[in-house]
Amino acid sequence: GGWTLDTARLNTADPNETDRALRGRYAVLKYGEGSFQKLLSPSFSLGIGSVAMWYRNWNSNANPAASFIVQKGTTSSGPWVTVAEVTNVLSPDWLFLRVTVADPSAHYVQIVNVTTATDSTLCIDELIIAEPGASVTLGNPQRSPGGTLLLGDEADISVDATPAGGATNLACTVHYRSGTTAPFTALAMTNSGTTFSIALPPGPAGTVQ
Description:
Blueprint: E1 4-6, E2 9-10, H1 15-18, E3 27-30, E4 38-40, E5 48-57, E6 66-73, E7 80-89, E8 95-103, E9 108-113, E10 121-130, E11 135-144, E12 155-164, E13 173-176, E14 185-188, E15 190-192, E16 195-200
Antiparallel strand pairs: 1-4, 2-3, 3-10, 4-9, 5-8, 5-10, 6-7, 6-9, 11-12, 12-16, 13-14, 15-16
């Protein structure tokens, strides 16, 4: 589906409202027109990278103040997590907000009017949601043998990489040292698919970090 206004509306053709526009149509969320005024996004399959929008108080005298929250969710019905809150919106001029979310597991955004003052009215325009950039998540780290190494032991290290957002040409480096105070040494790992591994060269007995 597309964008959904819940107990809210778009501006009318009345000059009293078109004169307030940033450009074209805008959303109007007014307390008293419903118990829960919000603007809900369509689904973004790759996740939510950032949210950008313009907002203002509908009233020319900016009274009463407006307030709203920006939330992310895994489904169109939540669960919802608040990523930004803007309170005491007193400006009759358009203001800009940009929120970094960077969450590939979130697929929806909603803007919710949280003001309860009579006639408090929020306007939203030019709402843009960007999907996350390329990223890689590392998981399932393994070391064999585990525990304290004996003199001359090799240590086999492996880790799984999960690319997202179109990440390609993956590379992974392991940093290791013998003991707890020596400088770290960096070695490039080799990969089989998305699993990276390396055999650390034999070293003295004891702890390897």
